[in-house]
Amino acid sequence: MSAVATAGPAVPAGSGGRRRRGRWNAPLVAGLILFGLIVALALCAPLLTSQDPIKQNLQAAFLDPGAKGHLLGTDALGRDVLARLLYGARVDLRVGVVAVISPLIIGSLIGLVAGWFGGWVDAVIGRIVDMVIAFPFLVLVIALVFAMGPGTTSIYVAVTLVGWVAYCRIVRGQVLVAKEQEYAMAARASGLPTWRILLRHLLPNVVLQAIIFSMSDIVLTLLAIVTLGFLGLGVPPPTPDWGTMIQEGQQFILTKWYMATIPGLAVVVTGLALALIADGIVEKANQ
């Protein structure tokens, strides 16, 4: 009887564990769907509109949404707002994603070295990190782009020079814990080269938090790109850019609200999608 009583609950417990492991990750799925839709709209821009995003037609300026085949209207120079929105998404998303890759790689490797070796190496890297992080991210990026001049290359360089410190701190903290684990101590005792221990054993186990942070960092970088475009320091005209669209439309906000509001909503929705993806990855990692 005692054996039956002990074995009885095993099936429900096991099935409950399977249900927990297979639980639908709503934030991740919603974020991926929403971000995938945004990317698809950007990639399919030539199929969704036949309008040229940079072609001017002063006779068609300030058309309301839906007038003369312009679904979202036209701006002060007669350019189609929908075309500029879709092609601007291509530019901003590409720059936002690519600009995060370098800080992620560089910061993770530096954090890996600082956390593993410690001592004076960690102290020097820590002082550099403290100096960079003392300034607000956006302010420092704007200052660097202003010094180097507008353009995507300046944005990439500025974001890399400022953004790597966050990944360095995240990975360094993870390494300080991971290097005391049995697998790291066993790898060190086996006589493996240091680079192999760092790249083969430690990095795959400590980089997840940095990748999760990169989802939020893309949002911050995207906001920086939009801000630079608004200030005239972003992508050079006439290339469409959400920040430039907001800057051009803000002076007509009371009469032609769509010129600034629509690209602003695009930034908000994109940020929401990336935030959902980050939350979903955290939830998945904690299951």
From TrEMBL:
* Residues annotated as signal peptide: none
Keyword Methyltransferase included in the entry's annotation: no
Q: Which UniProt keywords apply?
A: Cell membrane, Membrane, Transmembrane, Transmembrane helix, Transport
Q: How does it sit in the membrane?
A: Multi-pass membrane protein
Q: In the UniProt record, which is one GO cellular component term?
A: plasma membrane
Domain of life, source organism: Bacteria
Record domain ABC transmembrane type-1: where: 89-278
The membrane spanning regions, by residue number, are 28-48, 95-116, 128-148, 154-171, 206-233, 257-278
The family database entries (InterPro entries) matched by this protein are listed as: BP-dependent_transpt_permease, MetI-like, MetI-like_sf, OppC_N
Q: Where is the composition biased (Low complexity)?
A: 1-13
Under Gene3D superfamilies, the record lists: MetI-like (1.10.3720.10)
Q: A biological process (GO) annotation for this entry?
A: transmembrane transport
Where does the record place it?
Cell membrane
**Residue segments, region Disordered:** 1-20
Which PROSITE patterns does UniProt cross-reference here?
ABC_TM1
Q: Which family does it belong to?
A: Belongs to the binding-protein-dependent transport system permease family.
Q: What is this protein called?
A: Peptide ABC transporter permease
